[in-house]
Amino acid sequence: IMADKIEYPANLDGMLKQEFSRLNGKNSSIYLDHTGSTLYAKSQIDAYTADLQSHLYGNPHSGNPSSEHMADIVRGTVLNHFNVTNDQYDCVFTSGATGALRVLAENFEWTKGKSKFVYLEDNHTSVVGIREPVETQNCEAWLKEQKLNSTENLSQKDKSKIYFRVGNIFAYPAQSNFSGTKYPLFWISEVKKGEAFNLSKLMFVYIYICLGIGNPNSCNWYVLLDAAAYVSCSKLDLTEHPADFVCISFYKMFGFPTGLGCLLVRKSAAEMLTNKRYFGGGSPAGYLANCDFFKPRTVLHSRLEDGTISFLDIMALKHGFNFLNQVDKSMVRIQDHTFSLAQRLYRAMNMLKHHNGAEVVKIYSHTDYTDSQTQGAIITFNVNRADGSCIGFNHVLQLAASKNIHLRSGCFCNVGACVSMLNLTPENMKTIFQSGHSCGDHIDIVDGKPVGAIRASLGYMSSTRDVDSLVQFIKESFLQENNLSAEVNDEVYYDARSSVSDSSKALTLEKIFLYPVKSCRAIEVKQWTLCETGLTHDRMWMIVNDYGVCLTQKRENLLALIQPSIDLEAGTLTLESESCGSVEVPLNADDRIDGSVDINVCESKVCGDRVSGYDCGEKVSKWLSEFLGYKCYLIRKNNETRFAKKRKEIENCSNQTLALTNGAQYLMLTSSSVKFLQEKINSQLSEDGSKLGFDEIVDRFRCNFLVSGCKAFEEESWSKIFIRNQANVVKFMCSGLSNRCSMICVDKTGQKGLEPLRTLGTL
Ligand SMILES: *Cc1c(COP(=O)(O)O)cnc(C)c1O
């Protein structure tokens, strides 16, 4: 039923393709951040530059004939778009929606101890910020009362207005910039009924009462509608829904100009904007420099617009509205089109399932995208792995960017919605902020939970191609089709780097090793599951000392004596040593909370990267401390994503995240190279020197895969390796040769010798 609504008529579709041809071509882009900023059309900019080239525009305050009335004409165009005239509303130009909110906050007549500012939790930062001036201005407003008292030029009527009228503001977004939820516009008239205003009718309400509780009966409610996100794809009719104050940013409607917005003020509410304090440029009707005399202008926009308005940008609005009207003056078709695309995206994302049935995409919304009256063209989500854990949104965003897909991530300046939609607690968030996290930084997962999300938002020129590309990208990059695994005796193929050598050749996977605890002994397995960071559970734990420094065999030879083992069924990791017996910890992050075990997030460095994890508890710490002779802890890496350093060089490789390994997810060794080295070492030994066995050398190099069937050192020229069994083929990209390090000289007893490093140096 919806499908026929998605596509615009052919002529409009063709026109938009030409106007936005910069999205196609060589660097074809999928732009899905229209709530961040939508795009401007080519002819819109052409018309604007032609306008600039053919007129002489000077400062409107100077009475320049071309500029003088232009701003007022454009005010009329803006009001007309929202179906009102300048008898009903005034249009005050501001630096943006935020600027509009600030003008309102600073000029509104707040009454000390009485005024209330009530807002939805799901509001933009710029709306929530109004609460701060409410508080501070209350004191100031009181001071001004005193001052006005002694001013002669106020009529009795004006005075009573200031003394006895208590103004209150209820603020909500016409559309949430987080989830795209459209809140009912009938709330405007509900709230304005004053006494009848029943808060319980409004869902998701967070009330902020400034400086004490006023008497509701003497209250006078004004509605602030944040329409910044709403108006880009929806019709706002202010005759039908007469909000008192409306804020807008124009770049969200037609992409250009930036830094210009407006505060639309209903004429009957203008009397509340009398708290003018700063004045500048053309805003005073009169003032004296050497004494405290200032008389503001009476026309609202003249009074509130300090300095010279952005008159060239204001002119650009004319061309923006012209173009938008050309696409769809009613905005109804745009709304249908963008909503249908959002619905298509919502449905396609919900269909994505991992091999075990787990959902790939978690969508945060109040609706199920069935009604364009309650849902706008925004989809906010996170991507999950098959095991249900969340993939960091920064990782998803970076990968998407590498495919030229533009999205936005974080909390989108709407912490209220973020906290409630992601089920975070305010205490939670406070701790996170206090520990150094700030809005917009790189931290995306804390204690396994996402602290933000990814937003895809659509604009009037978006197409099914944009939506389908995003779904395809998620499917290709994150959908786990089956449990990938490797098994001994699997076939191994490779692609050589140089095209001259013979192409792929079958080899055999001889052995698989994993090292759950960094620098401790290997576990040899016959078959093992692969995950995002390599072999499952490989290098997920590390031992750190009292200073949080990660221990390795380079520093602490005794680690070579600790034998880990894994029991998948019991879900345990066991550490064992001859002298101290064994100790167990839970294998999975979810099971870690064990009575009163503390979960200290700690930081350490691996290969120059800061990595964080959590303490696996006192019991294992005691065991390790006893074994090594000083205080140390077992730390499990948390789910925060860590990237391979060389990742820029490996093209077309979607997954380059690491556990606690130094440089890559897997380390491979060939038995022919090991044999070659072994012969070399042993041939150089003196009579009484002890020979190094094959297995001993393999063990020293700490590989994950031992492969046989090629010549010695042939692997240095490989660029890709494939491991194939009945179920699947897994492709690996070679990221480079592993660095030599002195750890290969430590034997199983913790003794350090010279080989095989010495012989390697002679090759
Ligand atoms: C974008 C936006 C704002 C802020 O707009 P600026 O142009 O950054 O001032 C406020 N509210 C909502 C709902 C928005 O989407």
Automatic annotation (TrEMBL):
Its EC number is 2.8.1.9. It catalyses: Mo-molybdopterin + L-cysteine + AH2 = thio-Mo-molybdopterin + L-alanine + A + H2O. The modification N6-(pyridoxal phosphate)lysine is found at K252. Residues 622-763 form the MOSC domain. Keywords: Molybdenum cofactor biosynthesis, Pyridoxal phosphate, Transferase. GO terms for biological process: Mo-molybdopterin cofactor biosynthetic process. The keyword Hydrolase does not apply. It is an enzyme of class 2 (transferase). One of its GO terms (molecular function) is molybdenum ion binding. Its cofactor is pyridoxal 5'-phosphate. Sulfurates the molybdenum cofactor. Sulfation of molybdenum is essential for xanthine dehydrogenase (XDH) and aldehyde oxidase (ADO) enzymes in which molybdenum cofactor is liganded by 1 oxygen and 1 sulfur atom in active form. HAMAP family: MOCOS. This is Molybdenum cofactor sulfurase. It comes from Ciona savignyi (Pacific transparent sea squirt).
